[in-house]
Structure formats: structure tokens, C-alpha cells
Amino acid sequence: MIGRLTGLVEEAGEHGCLIDVNGVGYNVMASSRTLAALSRPPKVARVLTEMVVREDAMQLYGFATAEERSLFRLLTTVQGVGARVALAILSLAPPSELAMAIAAGDKAMFTRAAGVGPKLAGRLVSELAGKVPDMPMAQSGVKVPSGAGGAGLLEDLTGALLSLGYTRSEAWPVASRVIGANPGAGLNQLVPLALRAMSTP
């Protein structure tokens, strides 16, 4: 199984690229974020890969980071999310932000991806909510509170902060940190703590 490629990017298109490794060209499908990271060809690039084998075809998928590949594997465990839909989702935002959206139950985030309707977005969020806590999120440096109760409380606290005008990228990490530091606290206790944390430089 091919887990990584290092070679010269000879061609790059909207959905994939051709990487020459010692004279052998590999067609690699990738998210728009990974393709942007490869820059303009020709360029020597190192990509992590995942091979998807079907009855009628084999296809390599490439990823700029281990986090992106981990989330790809997780997304494709959901019924209705194939490799191409997973790449469309990964093109929306960094893996850390997508993990935040899953934990917060943000179905609207995923309906922005081609091939994802409200029903599939709901299934994706509900099935992956309990699996996200163990996923590394190098860019955000935070962990999702584990357990169904933790995820629900995180969603409620994040929603409370959003209603007060904060953005999701501001609210989610603070909500996660405050919940983790105050186990057993209810929403009414956590909101003022989160607001205090928001106002602390």
C-alpha cells in the first residue's frame, strides 16, 4: 500500500495532480487546499496518500497533512460519503475547523460541500460526533470534550457565545477549554466563565 509520495508535480488541475516519482507518474486526487499547498508545477512535493480500491478502479488520494488524511478516513466511514465527497468537504476548511463543526453540530457547514444535502450533513454530524475527540487537531491545539454530554454542552455553550456576537472560530476553542476546566458545571455557570475568558487578553 502506498502511504506517501515524494516527487515532481508535473501537472495540477482542479481535482488532482500528476506526480513524477523516479520516472513513474502517479495521478493523485486531492482537496483544493492540498492542491493549493502544492503551488504551481513544476515543484518537488511530499504528499501523504490513501489508496481507495473499488471493483472497477483504484485511485490514489493525496493529503498535505496527517490530520487531513485522518479526517478523510473518518468521513468515508459515513454512509453516503465517498472519497470525492470527502475531498469536497476537506476543501471547505482546515481539519481542525471541520472537527469543531462536527463537535458543535454545525450541519450548515457541511451542506456547503458539493454532494452534501441536509440529510447527509445531519448523518455525518451525528455519526462522527463521538469519534472526533480522539482526532489530533494540530492547528487549533484543543481537544473536543468526550462523551455525548460533553459534545451537547459544547454545542450549547458555543451557541450562546455565537448569539452574543462572537465568531465560531473565537467561541469554540474557549468553550472547549472552559468546559474541560470545569467538569460538572452547567451551562448557566459556564457562560459567565466563558465570557470572562473571552475578555482576558
UniProtKB/TrEMBL annotation:
Q: InterPro entries, per this entry?
A: DNA_helicase_Holl-junc_RuvA_I, NA-bd_OB-fold, RuvA, RuvA_2-like, RuvA_C, RuvA_C_sf
Alphabetized, the UniProt keywords read: Cytoplasm, DNA damage, DNA recombination, DNA repair, DNA-binding
The Holliday junction DNA helicase RuvA C-terminal domain, residue ranges: 154-199
The yes or no answer to whether the keyword Membrane is present is no
One cellular component term from this protein's GO annotations in UniProt: Holliday junction resolvase complex
Which SUPFAM superfamilies would you find in this protein's record?
DNA helicase RuvA subunit, C-terminal domain, Nucleic acid-binding proteins, RuvA domain 2-like
A Gene Ontology molecular function term for this protein is: four-way junction helicase activity
What biological processes does GO assign it? DNA recombination; DNA repair
What's the domain of life for this entry? Bacteria
Which residue numbers delimit the DNA helicase Holliday junction RuvA type domain? 1-62
Q: Is Transmembrane one of the keywords UniProt gives this record? A: no
Location in or out of the cell: Cytoplasm
For the region Domain III, what residue ranges are annotated?
A: 149-201
Where do the record's region annotations for Domain I lie? 1-64
Q: What does the sequence similarity comment in the record state about its family?
A: Belongs to the RuvA family.
Q: What does this protein do?
A: The RuvA-RuvB-RuvC complex processes Holliday junction (HJ) DNA during genetic recombination and DNA repair, while the RuvA-RuvB complex plays an important role in the rescue of blocked DNA replication forks via replication fork reversal (RFR). RuvA specifically binds to HJ cruciform DNA, conferring on it an open structure. The RuvB hexamer acts as an ATP-dependent pump, pulling dsDNA into and through the RuvAB complex. HJ branch migration allows RuvC to scan DNA until it finds its consensus sequence, where it cleaves and resolves the cruciform DNA.
This protein's domain notes: Has three domains with a flexible linker between the domains II and III and assumes an 'L' shape. Domain III is highly mobile and contacts RuvB.
This protein's name: Holliday junction branch migration complex subunit RuvA
Q: State the species of origin.
A: Formicincola oecophyllae
Q: What is the lineage of its organism?
A: Bacteria, Pseudomonadati, Pseudomonadota, Alphaproteobacteria, Acetobacterales
